[in-house]
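Duplicate of #3305? Posting structure anyway:
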């Protein structure tokens, strides 16, 4: 897919709604398409968080590993959602596993390039952090709820 097509595709996504064309161009230049089959790991806890994903089609389970139960799904990410925020926070390692549940197509965005651009541009940094903060909060809340359920804690 060429840069103009990727730009147009990203521009249609609500996450990028209202972002300046300059920043959308920059993000599109760091983007590529990827496909994952059911049960294929998209990323693994502890590995370098080098990209984030816009789910174009499919479902992805975000999982944590527990010693007594093995992998436990804490949330399911669907078509249209954003996957991955660990790339924003040093030491830039995944805090969860992500596994495709069904055939899944994503736009993978090179987070290393985006981090470098953010370091050089405070406005871009603020813009992306503002957009990612609700995602981070939602994922942490989902983790909390799953752990309460997993360990049968009344909240």
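Output from current build:
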């Amino acid at each position: 897919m060429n840069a103009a097509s990727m730009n147009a595709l990203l521009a249609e996504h609500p996450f990028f709604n209202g972002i300046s064309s300059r920043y959308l161009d920059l993000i599109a230049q760091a983007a590529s398409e990827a496909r994952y089959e059911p049960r294929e790991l998209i990323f693994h806890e502890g590995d370098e968080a080098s990209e984030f994903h816009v789910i174009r089609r499919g479902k992805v389970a975000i999982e944590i590993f527990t010693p007594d139960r093995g992998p436990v799904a804490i949330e399911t990410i669907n078509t249209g959602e954003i996957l991955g925020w660990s790339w924003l926070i040093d030491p830039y390692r995944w805090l969860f596993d992500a596994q495709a549940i069904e055939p899944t197509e994503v736009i993978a965005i090179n987070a290393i390039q985006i981090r470098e651009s953010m370091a050089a541009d405070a406005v871009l940094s603020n813009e992306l952090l503002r957009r990612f903060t609700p995602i981070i909060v939602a994922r942490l809340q989902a983790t909390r709820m799953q752990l309460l359920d997993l360990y049968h804690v009344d909240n």
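Confirmed duplicate; merging threads. The first helix runs from residue 3 to 11. Helices lie at 3-11, 21-29, 111-120, 122-150.
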